[in-house]
Amino acid sequence: MALSRSLRRTNSITLVLALVLAIGFIFFLFDPTSSSTPITAQQRQEDAASHPLSPPTKPFPKKHTQGRKGQDAPPPVVHYRMNELTASDSAAERGERVLILTPMMSFYQQYWDNLVKLTYPHELISLGFILPKTNKGNAATLALQEAVSKTQSGPIDDRFASVTILRQDFDPPLQSQDEKERHKKENQKIRREAMSRARNSLLFTTLGPSTSWVLWLDSDIVETPTTLIEDLTSHNKPVIVPNCYQRYFNSEAQKMDVRAYDYNSWVESDIALNLAAEMGPDDVLFEGYADIPTYRSLMVWMLPENSEDLDPRAEVELDGVGGTALMVKADVHRDGAMFPPFPFYHLLETEGFAKMAKRLGYTCWGLPHYFVYHYNE
């Protein structure tokens, strides 16, 4: 019996709708953003870089393609859509990759334990380290490699996307890395020039086309909120830094206490600008020394009298930043902001970086009521 014309029309529409629903269901199943399940080893393998010369910001398998006569195949031609790369206040939800960079003189297990506890998806985190070629640097490298090996062979959720370890090709200017020796005013210029070179070497070697954020985390930062990356990126600022304090035993009060540590995050003053104007071209103005009164507003002192008034999301615009835990949008570095190893407007390293970022049109921000803690030697 032949079907009526109206029934044939209804049947065609039904088939089209069913086809659309089926395609939508398949897209939902295979869309990586539609699933909240943990990433699997197979997914990590599929996401891996395809050649030894690929940028070190993705997982990299040991096996790679070989060409004719057993020789390594040439690297593939890869097109990166940089205009589609985001750095937003929803970093984890958008799958934005974070590069954590650490210049390391000594290895502290508390630093590594804190790193592993970070709740940002580890498959989106790449790590980069640079260490000096000294006896102490050799010992730190061995300890770091052992920690990396243990974590990267452990539970999948703890493993990081990739790890790069570099060794400095120049000698550190100070033989002693004792905290008091490091912070002597007469040692600041040569020490921070060397630190700038190390930071730049690490940055230029590891920054890849898929990196959205760069977190500079010093190796002696041993305590942060586990949500450090989510918290900092949620402000969606080009450059942002938390307040760095230090826990210590207060012998007068006979109890554990905290004290300010990083004085490099500040708001500029007219007095400091006048001091700089009278300096020679190679002179540097350092913060935190009593015999150089700059009268800058230091973020370490921007605290309310009542601890109940602390607001972890309170923001303040800064002119100088410290590097103990510094979050930077990768595009700020791509646009040319680095750590000057030379006097830049009479500033060096992280403070010079802040000045350079501002000259490029970016703003720098601080979180005076949000704390990370430095190791107490």
From TrEMBL:
Pfam families: Anp1
Gene3D superfamilies in UniProt: Spore Coat Polysaccharide Biosynthesis Protein SpsA, Chain A
A biological process from GO: cell wall mannoprotein biosynthetic process
InterPro entries, sorted: Mannan_Polymerase_Subunit (IPR052086), Nucleotide-diphossugar_trans (IPR029044)
Chain residue ranges for the region called Disordered: 39-77
Compartments where located: Golgi apparatus membrane
Name the UniProt record assigns to this protein: Alpha-1,6 mannosyltransferase subunit (Mnn9), putative
SUPFAM superfamilies named in the record: Nucleotide-diphospho-sugar transferases
Keywords: Glycosyltransferase, Golgi apparatus, Membrane, Signal-anchor, Transferase, Transmembrane, Transmembrane helix
Membrane topology, record value: Single-pass type II membrane protein
Statement: the UniProt record of this protein carries the keyword Glycosyltransferase: yes
Transmembrane portions of the chain: 12-30
Gene Ontology cellular component list: mannan polymerase complex
Similarity section: Belongs to the ANP1/MMN9/VAN1 family.
The keyword Membrane belongs to this UniProt entry's keyword annotation: yes
UniProt GO MF annotations: alpha-1,6-mannosyltransferase activity
